[in-house]
Amino acid sequence: MIMLILSFDSLDSNLEVDVIVVGDGVAGISIVTLLKKEGLSVAVLEARRIGSYVTESTTAKVSYTSSLIYSRVLSQFCKEFGLKFKDAYFTGFNKIIDIVDDLNIDCDLRRIPFYILSEDETKTDMLDNELNALKELNILAKIVNNVPCPFEKINKALVHENQLEFTPIKYLCGLTNYIDGSFVFENSRVLDIKEVDGFKIAKTENGSVKGKNIVIATNTPIYDPDGIYKHLDQVKSHSLGISLEKDVKDIFAVFNLFHTLRSSPSSKGEILVFLGDHRSIDNLTDRWDFYKNLRNYSQDLFNVKSFQYFWSGRDNLTPNGVTIIR
Ligand SMILES: Cc1cc2nc3c(=O)[nH]c(=O)nc-3n(C[C@H](O)[C@H](O)[C@H](O)COP(=O)(O)OP(=O)(O)OC[C@H]3O[C@@H](n4cnc5c(N)ncnc54)[C@H](O)[C@@H]3O)c2cc1C
To answer: Which of 149, 171, 177, 289 is most buried, taking the most CB atoms under 10 A from its CB?
Structure first.
């Protein structure tokens, strides 16, 4: 397991800065890095340890797609919004590449094709719809009829070349080294946020920070003046880490089941990171059933050597699957 090299004290005094960032997952720490590059003074308040919440348990794909998202966007919104949506995805994608290059971070960043497919032949037309939407938005992708391991039996997939994967904790290590020397506080949960005379004040148990601006990067609702969280459902995803007889090289999303899979280097060799379907936390029954389903599905698909890990993570999704962009 890779450990973060640096650790930080909790906040025990009062401070004033340009920007307060609440939450230090991949979103928070990337924002702090960018703000610091702009020469702003920043204080970051993290309730636990850096990267220790959802970020630690993702499948660590960095892509400007996740499945059939662009056809969904264009079926519900106008082309202008589709272009904004594309721009948001591409900007984030390129920003991560720039940060890694600029700070010379060794985080196993590698380019890799991302295949989207269905095991249900009656649904493969949806790949053509997605390709049409991609063309309309000027995004390069293609339909292929030869799909690599472990989906050799499938004869149609949409592929986005040059997507990325990395080891998030190494990426966070690189950023943590860069922001060392700023006001970074761990074990400092924000309990209350107030607006006083145009300033934001974030209060923790033993101190508070005053800032001209505040960024909420908590991935959970703690301060929501724009009412964004009322549009989101909390979902839980279940994952397995599997050692295989034969490694999988690419990223796959199976859209009829919503499963994603990719290989990741680890101290135990290549591990297949295999993420199962999302369930609203209101509809969770026996969580072991999800792991059992994943285990059975993976055994149908691969020659499994051993199951090494299992874990789950929570996320927030809009009901229509389209990210909110203002
Ligand atoms: C299982 C799973 C797999 C995923 N895989 C991918 C993937 O492969 N690629 C991808 O792009 N996305 C993926 N996602 C989406 C994922 O949510 C994001 O990519 C990303 O990791 C979320 O990062 P974050 O910084 O927004 O949230 P988090 O990592 O959750 O960070 C938020 C931080 O805020 C802190 N916090 C919360 N409340 C407070 C408070 N009151 N005061 C101070 N701090 C607080 C938390 O402790 C936490 O550290 C996945 C999600 C899940 C659940």
So the answer is: 171
